[in-house]
Amino acid sequence: MMDVVEIQKIIPHRYPFLLLDRVTEIKENESLIGFKNVTIGDNVFQGHFPGHPIYPGVMILEGMAQAGGILAFKSMGTMTEEEAANKVVYFMSIDKAKFRNPVKPGDRLEYRISVIKNKGQIWVLDGKAYVDDVLVSEAELKAMIVDK
């Protein structure tokens, strides 16, 4: 388990762009499960859409990417906080993105990320997002861990 404080030690994102509240399961080099609690207080709902709040698909993909970054970092073996602070994950591509159901305030958006392949600093990940075990979005993510 990783709470938001531990997550912030690994990835550089901060409010309002930190889109992962907790990691509940991680299997290095295999998979990660984490979630974001979507609330009406999220800044994005001021404009998307007033009177009909829908969590933007691009934010769902970014949450997947952040979860994938955690999985990649944790799979790189023993890395100190200082070493992690000098690295960053750059996403190279997002392919096969699909949005299947809307995500609304009050939903718990669960990210399930799995490794498709890894070669050195490059990771190809399968990302899926669920609300109440219903698939709401999916994508294939490609990322690279680099020095800052």
Which parts are unreliable, with pLDDT below 50 for 5 consecutive residues or more? none
- End-to-end separation in angstroms reads 27 Å
Strand content: 35-45%
Strand order of the largest sheet: 1-2-4-5-6-3
Q: SS-based structural class? A: alpha+beta
What key phrases describe this protein's structure?
six-stranded antiparallel sheet, alpha+beta, 3 helices, 148 residues
Task: Give a short overview.
With 148 residues, this protein is α+β, with helices and mostly antiparallel strands. The protein has three helices and six strands.
Fold and architecture overview:
This protein is of the alpha+beta class and 148 residues long. It has helices at residues 4-10, 57-74, 81-85, and strands spanning 22-27, 31-37, 87-99, 108-119, 122-131, 134-147. A six-stranded antiparallel sheet has the order 1-2-4-5-6-3. It starts with a helix and ends with a strand. The model has no long low-confidence stretch (mean pLDDT 94).
